[in-house]
């Protein structure tokens, strides 16, 4: 991926609610049982990994690397009901934070491990997303949620993660940083060398404090990033939200 000059406009405000409605969704799904782990990163360190037309999105001069584990539930096209089996599966992604020349904040996925082969194939073919097929589980034991992942194809085989969090109380008023890390209203990627932005909308996140009990992973390194230095600076949990994706828009390379 190549890096363009910084955007000429100020990024959109950080908001807990979507800045743009998605009235005619291309895709619907729910994200459930999410664990958000984040480490700080220098913008110059991640800039070469972003798509053309974007730069690192920062808060107080810092950007972040996210490791997010959750359950995808009932992915559906247009207004059709979601698919119970093929559209429901665990997923773990490594993501960065981006802003484009239009000021739109988004995420950039460096990897997306998922346990259903057909959605992996569709994501790679249709959106050129770095989906990989993995063995995955999400298990509840009281207030503890454990996520496991072991990569199958296309590799690197053996890349894995084990995350366990103890869910705490609901956050009444999330901080600006917590909104910055979770309320991301689009995805930046490339399609045939051109920037692609896919918007999304969902209700405000119900966020909880979470205590990290276990984190044994090498997905961040497998995604082309340095190994995290120390524990994450932010650990959050959410029971989830329903999500609507709008139609992609292509930009100029």
- Shape, per Cα inertia axes: globular
SSE pattern, N- to C-terminal: EHEEEEHEEEHEEEHEE
Roughly how many Å apart are the termini? 11 Å
Major β-sheet strand ordering: 1-3-4-5-6-7-8-11-12
CATH superfamily: Acetoacetate decarboxylase-like
InterPro entries: ADC_dom_sf, DUF2071
Pfam families: DUF2071
Organism: Streptomyces nojiriensis
Protein name: DUF2071 domain-containing protein
TL;DR of this structure?
The protein is mainly beta and 253 residues long.
Question: Keywords for this structure?
Answer:
single chain; 253 residues; Acetoacetate decarboxylase-like; nine-stranded mixed β-barrel; globular; DUF2071
Q: How would you characterize the overall build of this protein?
A:
By secondary structure, this protein is mainly β. The protein has a single domain (37-246), classed as Acetoacetate decarboxylase-like (Beta Barrel). The chain is built from 4 helices and 13 strands. A 9-stranded mixed β-barrel has the order 1-3-4-5-6-7-8-11-12. The N and C termini lie close together (11 Å). The model is unreliable at 1-7 (pLDDT under 50). InterPro entries: ADC_dom_sf, DUF2071. This is DUF2071 domain-containing protein.
């Amino acid at each position: 991926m190549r890096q363009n000059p910084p955007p000429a406009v100020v990024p959109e405000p950080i908001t807990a609610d979507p800045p743009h409605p998605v009235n005619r969704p291309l895709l619907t799904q729910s994200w459930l049982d999410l664990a958000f782990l984040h480490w700080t990163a220098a913008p110059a360190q991640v800039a070469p990994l972003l798509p053309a037309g974007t730069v690192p999105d920062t808060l107080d001069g810092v950007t972040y690397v996210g490791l997010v584990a959750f359950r995808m539930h009932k992915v559906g096209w247009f207004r059709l009901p979601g698919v119970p089996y093929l559209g429901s599966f665990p997923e773990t992604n490594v993501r960065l934070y981006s802003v484009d020349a239009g000021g739109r904040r988004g995420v950039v996925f460096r990897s997306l491990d998922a346990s259903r082969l057909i959605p992996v194939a569709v994501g790679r073919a249709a959106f050129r997303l770095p989906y990989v097929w993995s063995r995955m589980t999400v298990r509840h034991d009281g207030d503890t949620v454990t996520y496991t992942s072991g990569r199958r194809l296309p590799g690197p085989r053996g890349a894995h993660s084990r995350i366990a969090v103890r869910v705490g109380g609901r956050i009444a008023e999330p901080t600006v940083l917590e909104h910055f890390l979770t309320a991301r209203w689009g995805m930046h990627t490339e399609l045939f060398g051109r920037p692609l932005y896919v918007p999304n909308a969902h209700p405000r996140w119900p966020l909880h404090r979470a205590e990290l009990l276990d984190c044994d992973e090498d997905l961040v390194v497998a995604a082309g990033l340095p190994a995290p230095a120390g524990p994450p600076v932010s650990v959050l949990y959410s029971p989830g939200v329903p999500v609507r994706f709008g139609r992609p828009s292509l930009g100029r390379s």
